[in-house]
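Reopening this ticket.

The earlier resolution said the output was attached, but the attachment link was broken on my side. Pasting everything inline this time so it's all in one place.
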Amino acid sequence: MQHLLSPLRHNHRHLHHILAPLTIPFASAHYKPHKPPPPPKPPKPPQKAATFTLHGQTWEDPYSWMSNLNDKVAMRHMDVYMEQEEKYTEAVLNDTVRLQSKLQSEMASRMSSQLSTPPFRWGPWLYYRRVEEGKQYPVLCRRLAGLNDEFISHKSPTAGFDFTSGKRIEQKLIDYNQEAERFGGYAYEELSEVSPDHRFIAYTMYDKDNDFFKLCVRDLNLGLLCGKPQADWVSNVAWAKGGQALLYVVTDQNKKPYRLYCSMLGSKDEDVMLLEEPGEDVHVSIRHTKDFQFVTVNIFSTTYSKVYLINAADPLSGLTLVWECEACAHCIIEHHQGYLYLFTNADRGGQSVDFHYLLRSPLHSPGPRKWENVFIDDKDLIIEDVDFSNSHLVLIIRECGRFRLCSVALPIASSKDAVHLRELYPNFLPLPESVSQISPGTNYDFYSSIMRFTISSPVMPDAVVDYNLSDGKREIIQQHNLLQERTRVLYGTASAGMNISVHNTEANAENSNSWNDLSDFYACEQHEVISSDGVTVPLTVVYSHKRKKGGQNPGLLHGHGAYGELLDKRWRSELKSLLDRGWVIAYADVRGGGGRGKRWHEDGQRTKKHNSVNDYISCAKFLLENEIVHQNKLAGWGYSAGGLLVASAINCCPDLFRAAVLKVPFLDPVNTLFNPILPLTPVDYEEFGYPGDIEDFEGIRKFSPYENIQKGVLYPAVLVSSSFNTRFGVWEAAKWVARVRDHTIYNPDHPILLNLTTDIVEENRYLQCKESALEAAFLLKIIDS
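Inline output:
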């Protein structure tokens, strides 16, 4: 460019020479060019030498003091440091304040105006949660179904009053705003279970001052809390004896579920302890079968899994062992007309299996219990989940990689030989394209012919669907219609929404069963990426048809790859702000995640965790090499264990990414697994490794983001969001941020930011919008620069 600019500079000087006699001296003397303010400097927390040794290996951690929760001096330093980080993040993003406001307005406008959950029917009642105007927390309510054929879930009838009959038809069960007053202004419920006679509800509320969940039981007829049972540290509940008895599990001080109690409601007797498992790695969990005839007790550790049965009619009669296997396995038992059904992924015949399978055994049989396969294995028809009603078995399956939903009539004819699923003439429910997940709903009513599911897709808002098992048809109960910015009919034959009259039912009836699919506006492509070791990795790519420009679009690559969990590829309305600005949203289904079998999960855990990282890097390179995303406009995104994935990928290839967002990430597995500050479960160690095992320990050190930060190189801009309520601890994010700044090249255009939240964002829609707007503004600022 110099040869073009030189003549201009020459002419400029010549012109200045000609005009010099005409210039005004004092004007030029007082003119000072405007200098932009210097970029804010990142804070530097104090370092304190600390050395650790294991298996003959020694490592230093100068920021280990950040996790010394019992050291008051350290915590004062931590408070100061957190305040500095907060101010630094605000300063760096100060020029995006207006953009954040605009993005937050966009995202808020797309939020469903619906102030109620879709009501679900159980027996004679409709149960639902709704938010009252001006209140922070919802209210759990119910109405008799027979009085509400024209049920509208919000605002009509107002506050549950039927003006036609002059009767109050809604019953408030729990007002969580009142619960917040009981628990220091904070209301977070972990679980709630209504008794089978609909008289009581048991629920647990988080006591943040004591850091445990407190059991509460409320009499729904009287609207009052019961005097007993009263228990703290409760992790699990199940009703028995038709609602006259409540079984509950408590944890120890390390939050490990280890004791099972039975409480007789209305009795003055003390609660009876039915089971205690004091072993360090042994966990206890309970659930009732859907017909409420039994309570199943799952006991699992890293070396074995057992399932016991308790007769719900007589919960003090003892526990009967009905299943056991080696290693930690997923085991769910149901009862149907004299048969026990077991859905599991336990090893079979001494051989590891790749997918879940269904077994059956007579409830009463002489001699040792024998379990028989229900279905013949079919690699093209994988069972992902099952649900039972009195009349049907419903299966979520994957056929050649595509999610499907079907049902078969019960009972299944008794036979010693397993059958092909197709021999039972399953009824398949038609679903839209690009379904990424099918989630069972609150299907409490064992005798109902209706089952509820949520259908998810990257290019369709979640659809809550009622599946009629008697005729094989479905009805969409709730789905946000982004095209008209309103919410679909929720229940019954009437409808309500932002831009639609309550009485306009005829027009809605025509579209009542159509999916609000956005594929006309957004593309959803499936790619197969070859990883570094030749394994094929699925990659989903979503973009706007109108905004796609070959090789010019910025992109955001999501990843998780842990615990065998499905990568969340649901449509998220906040991502619409990026899609409509030309961004490509991609999802890498790396090893360690779910949806492709147990081996896929195992090939990305413990010493094989590097496979997950290599898969993610291969997907990132695929996006760039195929000009799906611009070479210098790729960002990574990871949540929790997905944060470990993305941070590890950045350590390996820092120049591959321009930016990254890490939400409540797991970044320091070496120190967290070696010396856990917060309680971990056997599943955590199975996933990432046992520090006591030298091979696992070496593997952990190799993939640990905190241990492998490159020195003397430029890292991408990173926004790390953490919370004081995260299970991995805010210190993990703070330590990683500090060490990245220490080791890497400082560049104000590549800031490393720490964003802190003090509340559980998932419980507050306003905070959700605010956090999403902050993330989007950060990405837009960095990529546009």
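Reporter confirms the inline version is readable. Confidence is low (pLDDT under 50) at residues 1-29, 151-159, 485-512. The radius of gyration is 29 Å.
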